[in-house]
Automatic annotation (TrEMBL):
NCBIfam families: PRK10765.1
An MF annotation (GO) of this entry: FMN reductase (NADPH) activity
CDD domains: NfsA-like
Organism: Neptunomonas concharum
Domain of life: Bacteria
Name of the protein described by the UniProt record: Oxygen-insensitive NADPH nitroreductase
Length: 245
């Protein structure tokens, strides 16, 4: 493997960071790397808010389910899907912006995810660690108010960045044949492959926790998917001008 692929396949989520600061020039370089990601029809629908204020950090950590690394990470970024500036662009040309389409929600959200992943890889290439914070969507209306997000802007997730103060193992991913299909979708082998993968994940958790946790991937997923998944999201997104049609 070349160094880029080695970096990509060595990814771990880091939740413990040293207090060593990160130069602002580096953060700005990572953001420029994010801007270089593919963007649907050149819409560039991602805005990043760097949260430095410790009171805001503490509130965001609480909103995200009391995740302390939101406060302790040297850098915390919030990635927002942003169609607000597109309204400004339309107004400049006296154009009546047609908004609220599901496709616009999808393209803006995908743009944001691609942007963020470029930022994450750029940071990891400099020896930093990262962890995404999807928990911001637990109390997304409070996050939006705290950050002063206008209409047609919503927080997709947060990102902690810092120098790692832990060295976790790489978490095994699904077997390649379950993910890479040829010409058509087939699942004839998936049950058998999943059984082997469940054993691998159970062993991974056993090693990582010193025997305190033994759970397979299918157990984890089945436990998660019998619960409601943030049912407040639809009404919130509609209040922001998304998913109206």
């Amino acid at each position: 493997m070349n160094p880029t692929i080695e970096l990509l396949t060595a990814h771990r989520s880091i939740r413990a960071f040293t207090p060593e600061p990160i130069e602002q020039a580096k953060i700005e370089t990572f953001i420029k790397a994010g801007q270089a990601a593919a963007t649907s029809s050149f819409i560039q629908a991602c805005t990043v808010i760097q949260v430095n204020n410790q009171q805001k950090r503490a509130a965001l950590a609480e909103y995200a389910g009391n995740q302390p690394y939101v406060v302790s990470a040297p850098v915390f970024l919030v990635f927002c899907a942003d169609m607000h500036r597109h309204k400004i662009a339309c107004d400049l040309h006296h154009a009546d912006m047609q908004s609220g389409f599901t496709e616009q929600f999808m393209t803006a959200t995908i743009d944001c995810a691609l942007f963020a992943q470029n930022v994450a890889i750029a940071a990891e290439s400099e020896g930093l660690g990262i962890v995404y914070i999807g928990g911001l969507r637990n109390q997304i209306a409070n996050v939006s108010e705290l950050l002063g997000l206008p209409d047609k802007v919503y927080p997709v997730f947060g990102l902690c960045i810092g120098y790692p103060d832990q060295n976790p193992e790489v978490k095994p991913r699904l077997p390649l044949p379950m993910v890479l299909k040829q010409d058509t979708y087939t699942d004839a082998q998936d049950t058998a492959l999943l059984a082997d993968y469940d054993n691998e994940i159970r062993e991974y958790y056993r090693n990582r926790t010193g025997g305190n946790k033994e759970m397979s991937w299918s157990e984890q997923i089945s436990g998660m998917l019998v619960k409601e998944a943030r049912p407040h999201m639809l009404s919130f997104l509609q209040s922001k001008g998304y998913l109206l049609k």
